[in-house]
UniProtKB/TrEMBL annotation:
Matching Gene3D superfamilies: 3.10.50.40, Porin chaperone SurA, peptide-binding domain (1.10.4030.10)
A GO MF label: peptidyl-prolyl cis-trans isomerase activity
Ubl conjugation found in the keyword field: no
UniProt feature coiled coil, ranges: 186-213
Keyword presence, Secreted: no
Signal peptide from the UniProt entry: 1-24
Keywords associated with the record: Coiled coil, Isomerase, Rotamase, Signal
SUPFAM superfamilies on file: FKBP-like, Triger factor/SurA peptide-binding domain-like
InterPro entries in the record: OMP_Chaperone_SurA, PPIase_dom_sf, PPIase_PpiC, PPIase_PpiC_CS, Trigger_fact/SurA_dom_sf
Protein's name in the database: Peptidylprolyl isomerase
PpiC domain span: 174-274, 277-374
Amino acid sequence: MKSILLSYFILTTLLIVAASPAYSQGKGVSLNKIIAKADNYYVLKSDLEQARQSYAQQNQKAPGDCQLLESLVVQKVLLAKAEIDSVTVDDKLIENQMDGRMSYMIQQFGSEKNLVEAYGKSIEALKSELRSEVKEQMLGQRMQTKITDDVKVSPNEVRKFFNGIPKDSLPYIPAEVEIGHIVRLAKVTKEQKEELRKRLQALKERVEKGEDFAKLATEFSEDVGSAQKGGSLGFAKRGAMVAEFEGAAMKLKPNEMSDIVESEFGLHLIQLIEVRGAEYHARHILLRPDYNRLDLSQPRRFLDSLRTLIVADSIKFEKAAKDFSEDKATADAGGVIRDQQSNSTLMPLDQNMDYTLYMTLDTMKVGSVSQPMDYRLEDGKSAVRLLFYKRKVAPHTASIKDDYEKIANIVLNNKKNTAIDAWFKKAVSDVYINVDPEYQSCHILGSQKTDGP
């Protein structure tokens, strides 16, 4: 089971970053054939092919079909149990993740036009497919978190594990670096804002003349998730929305429409539907700026001036990051970036690091701050950043003193795997699992069923 789970975690990571139209273009094979299912969740032949393609795109050797299929079935079991246990993911989180993924894909293909031509589908069709994939992955991750949320490790467990490793088998740790950054987002130009305001004003006037707000939201709103529901955001508790949006919404009476409201997400036209105690239900039409046309000159000038102060020691980098960085994920930690795989502040200085970052660090000295650099956040927003080369750890043999965090993470992951293993032993008895006879020799999750789904 542990090897199954490990391959599943690797596979879902690959599927998050990979984007290839190749899997949908098979010839002579029915890629829509159902080859496995867990309750009402299905694995198609195309899912297996896509998984194989994802490894190829990352220049990694794919496991055999049995292991790949088992990883996919594990995902479906997680989804089936999420449904049974009423585990959900907020629509806004799904939309944010999807927008970031879509921006990444457009960046990889060079333009929206290239992406559409490669897939043979419209952007909206791609978003619709992508939304389903993102939701499934986030639900699976939420279930994993729920299963392992209470798993903790003690210092004694870490020491016991380390002391049990033969001295001649201690791992060799390659060079690692700790870096921080200060990020300033690209600004919307006055011309872009004016263009968006004119478009929203025209939509507002159409509503005032009697057209249905919900229909216009469906047609024009760039918040894809809510647009499908006539712009409806559902009931939200106070404090859940950004301040600008909530402040405008709460000034309205039911069925009343706001003036144009600006937030970090773009420009909104808001209609209040209902207030229920501490909750309110609103719908909106959102227009976003074109992130590829934003103005980088202002954030670049700002960071250039801030760098001068940091280099002159008039302000410490950590304080500057807390006070001025617009990357919410790192600002409170003084700008320090954590490795996405290990969650450590140290990351390997090797070929797996982002190439631009690797080459930049190669020209810097420890303790130095880079010149302002163009940068793109995970959600696709354009930005400029300063890099701080905080420290470098030389290659060395692992020790409890220098590598406690890494060793603790190994012990923690082992305990989490054990917890997930125990959970799956129970889950497979709660979920109906069926595998196509073509894969009967794989014995997916120990299943011996061979009748077709």
